[in-house]
């Protein structure tokens, strides 16, 4: 039986260059997310973005619980969660591992379209971006989760086939 968890997410409805919540990479506050940015940048080696095969879990042991690796399905029609760290599971209240974004409506009504806009931006802009926002698991929840994230493309040649995400989630009271 699937766990019923309503997740209300308060991040920008539009994730364009002027969106509230989108921040420059060099203003990321979280050391964990900064380490994710540095790791991704180190793998580029003169390319626009690294390949999925460049990611080595041993190299990011300290980031794994905060890491999410998504496979791009049908040129961005959907996304499949290939790796999902415990921090993501705890923040959202359910595991996304091995599932497609389009399958989340039961656990988290409305979450899929919000996350899809974030992932689609990576495909459209072909560059990493950072985001700050607030998450609440239900409309009635009085404790919110502050999040800071990086979303970055991975792929071979010119084609983006995965998205690398590192996020932190910090509970805060109203």
Structure description:
The protein is of the alpha+beta class and 174 residues long. 21% of the residues lie in helices and 32% in strands. It contains 3 helices and 7 strands, in the order ββαββααβββ. The longest helix is centred in the last third of the chain and has 15 residues, at 111-125.
List descriptors.
32% strand; alpha+beta; 7-stranded antiparallel sheet; 174 residues
List how many beta strands DSSP finds.
7
User: Could you tell me the radius of gyration in angstroms?
Assistant: 15 Å
**Secondary-structure content class:** alpha+beta
Mean pLDDT: 86
Given as residue ranges, the uncertain stretches (5+ residues, pLDDT < 50) are: 1-6, 8-18
The 3D shape can be described as globular
**Secondary-structure element string:** EEHEEHHEEE
The main β sheet shows up as:
7 strands, antiparallel
Through-space gap between termini: 32 Å
How much helix is in the residues? 10-25%
How many helix segments?
Answer: 3
Give the percentage of residues in beta strands: 25-35%
């Amino acid at each position: 039986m699937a766990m019923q968890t309503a997740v209300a997410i308060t991040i920008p409805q539009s994730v364009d260059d002027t969106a509230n919540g989108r921040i420059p990479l060099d203003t990321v506050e979280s050391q964990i997310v900064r380490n994710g940015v540095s790791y991704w940048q180190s793998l580029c080696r003169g390319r626009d973005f690294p390949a999925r095969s460049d990611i080595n879990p041993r190299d990011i042991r300290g980031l794994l619980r905060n890491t999410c690796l998504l496979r791009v399905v049908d040129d961005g029609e959907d996304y499949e969660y290939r790796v999902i760290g415990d921090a993501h599971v705890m923040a959202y209240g359910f595991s996304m591992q091995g599932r497609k974004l389009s399958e989340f409506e039961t656990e988290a009504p409305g979450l899929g379209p919000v996350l899809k806009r974030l992932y689609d931006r990576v495909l459209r802009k072909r560059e990493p971006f950072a985001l700050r926002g607030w998450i609440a698991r239900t409309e009635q929840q009085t404790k919110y989760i502050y999040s800071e994230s990086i979303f970055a493309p991975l792929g071979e040649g010119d084609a983006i086939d995965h998205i690398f995400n590192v996020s932190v989630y910090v509970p805060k009271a109203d």
